[in-house]
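Handout for the seminar on molecular recognition.
Each group receives one record of this type.
Step one: identify the two inputs.
Step two: read the structure output and locate the region that could contact flavin-adenine dinucleotide.
Step three: write two sentences on what you found, then compare them with the reference statements printed after the record.
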Amino acid sequence: MNQYDLIVVGSGPAGRRAAIQAAKLDKKVLVIEQGRRVGGVSVHTGTIPSKTLRETALNLSGWRERGFYGKAYRVKQEISADDLRRRLLITLDHEVEVLEHQFARNRVQHMRGKASFVSPDTLEIQKDDNDVVQVSAKSILLAVGTRPFRPDYMPFDGRSVIDSDELLEMQNLPRSLVVIGAGVIGIEYATIFSALDTAVTVIDPKATMLDFIDKEIVEDFTYQLRDRNMKLMLGQKAEKVEHMPDGKVQVTVDSGRRIITDMVLFAAGRMGATDTLNLAAAGLEADSRGRLRVNPETFETSVPGIFAAGDVVGFPSLASTSMEQGRIAARVAVGAIAKEPQKYFPYGIYSVPEISTVGLTEEEMKERGIPYECGIARFRETSRGHIMGLDSGMLKLIFSMKTRRLLGVHIIGETATELVHIGQAVLNLKGTVEYFVENTFNYPTLAEAYKIAGLDAWNRMGEAPKDESKAAPAPAEKAATPAAKTKADDKKAAAK
Ligand SMILES: Cc1cc2nc3c(=O)[nH]c(=O)nc-3n(C[C@H](O)[C@H](O)[C@H](O)COP(=O)(O)OP(=O)(O)OC[C@H]3O[C@@H](n4cnc5c(N)ncnc54)[C@H](O)[C@@H]3O)c2cc1C
Ligand SMILES: NC(=O)c1ccc[n+]([C@@H]2O[C@H](COP(=O)([O-])OP(=O)(O)OC[C@H]3O[C@@H](n4cnc5c(N)ncnc54)[C@H](O)[C@@H]3O)[C@@H](O)[C@H]2O)c1
């Protein structure tokens, strides 16, 4: 039987970062992946495909230019499913190639097959030809990710009632779409299709959406979606979904209302992919959503030597955080020094328009009793915004009145997911409102919005007291320091 220092199950963001980190520390590493190609959900059905689809949709529809040329402007009049798929295949091929090359040059071994436990340090790998091999390791990392939640009552057919993994296989662009589930996946796809002129209805039993985002940003977002005729049926339940003889689908909502649509996308959450791992043989148990509990600093499970990272451990379930979790888990697994993950990380929601945020929301500031001031800049106030023809988009900064520190950054609009990193750096380096007032920003850029929002807040906050650098944080504000952020994180997780 082959013996390794570290075996990683799953080649998504968590698995690949972990494998390469351990290999860089001269460890013998094996990655087991059941999929036809390495990359995980992130490369094949999640992050990369959805973002490629978004980019293609925005380019072909001429969406970004409509501020100038009017709402009727289109780069391509008839956009087909094939148009969308073409760019997808090229991007995915490239991603896989880069990853395979990384594994090869770092001497990470990789085996195709489905892994399950035989004992806490030994796995059985079932290959496609039904051949079975056993491998063992000093440490094992489970980076198996998730799969879509597919309840029995939903009549999935892979064509007109689909989950988010199946969406990429669609043959025709729907003229109408009902999205069930207003989570991040549902909202991203709903707005992408709306940009392609599909008539979109979003249904969710919860009365609000994206609760972890600052309310003012969600209000702006909701206004923009309604302004372009998207139907948001929040606080309503899709009770019945039926295939009609003409190939359409009928969705009956609990109010009795019926919607006839070309396609239904069911996006009501995901389940940890742990059911085939034979966890019992390792002494492990998953929760009701298939997720594993780990020590949040080391990512070790309750069984010494078995680690778990990425979506399978639950919140925040992002490719970005999964990579960092995988790296930390691998370092701990092979006995290297590892720091716990940074508590303030950004969220990027690639809806149309995009949203990005880091730190505390205005609602969290109130809950914690931290006196604060906000600064707001609209993209249309920036020269870059004029050049780009933007009529929407805003940046909101939240500062503590006591210490003047930046505690929250919330952005909606073009390039929000890139712009957020400026705020993230200032926030994590404990910068104050003076950073934005006293520094010069490139002109004309959208980043200038930071300057405008900083000045907006500063005008209301007044001059800094002379010895502000020595100002002690108020007790309530101490709770906003990274060490105590976990509570807010838990709340965000609960809100999801
Ligand atoms: C539609 C969509 C859009 C998203 N967009 C974003 C985004 O914009 N930004 C962002 O940060 N995140 C995004 N995410 C989330 C992101 O994709 C996940 O956080 C990330 O993929 C999780 O990585 P992971 O390493 O946990 O595992 P995954 O990427 O889920 O990969 C797990 C791998 O393990 C394999 N596996 C499972 N069980 C076994 C087994 N028994 N044996 C062998 N192999 C096994 C699977 O085949 C899979 O390849 C999106 C997700 C979806 C679904
Ligand atoms: N840009 C990004 O970072 C990005 C993009 C996509 C996905 N993701 C990650 O993927 C994960 C999964 O996303 P998701 O959107 O599938 O899940 P989610 O848990 O975020 O949202 C699910 C939504 O479905 C609703 N819902 C739950 N059960 C339902 C039911 N039976 N019928 C109808 N609606 C129901 C919920 O009220 C919720 O609004 C998220 O945790 C997210 O972090 C991230």
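Reference statements: The radius of gyration is 24 Å. Residues 180-186, 188, 204-206, 267-270, 316-318, 348-350, 496 surround nicotinamide-adenine-dinucleotide (ligand 2) (CB under 6 Å).
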